[in-house]
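Z., the sequence and structure:
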Amino acid sequence: MWHQQTLTLGAKARGFHLITDEIVGQLHGLSDVRVGQLHLLLQHTSASLTLNENCDPTVRSDMEQHFLRHVPESAPYQHDYEGADDMPAHIKSSLLGVSLLIPVNRGRLMLGTWQGIWLGEHRVQGGARRIVATLQGQ
């Protein structure tokens, strides 16, 4: 069985956002998969996907503060056509990545107890984001 669809996430403020429920809520066919995998591809170069803490929101805040310190907007970037946050957003996206592969068992994502899917929104105003979700299994 193969199923593919494009999911849309509403615009979010710059920072890290727990989006597991948004993904699962939009994904058709997940409950039909006994064993398989879900591949997620974020179709943007200024945001990222990652797996991390799903309980304590201070982890997301600390992550944002880390990236603001280590990938500053004030550096002398050549690519600045779309604003001071654009090139730093591309760097953060490349560091964290834009895809995830998650095992599926009995209609559920096989995430660890404290794992959740995060969207890293690296632009001040990134807008809606699209994710291509490909579900494979039996």
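The chain has a mean pLDDT of 97. Strands lie at 2-9, 13-18, 35-42, 47-53, 99-105, 108-109, 115-125, 129-137.

Let me know what you think.
H.
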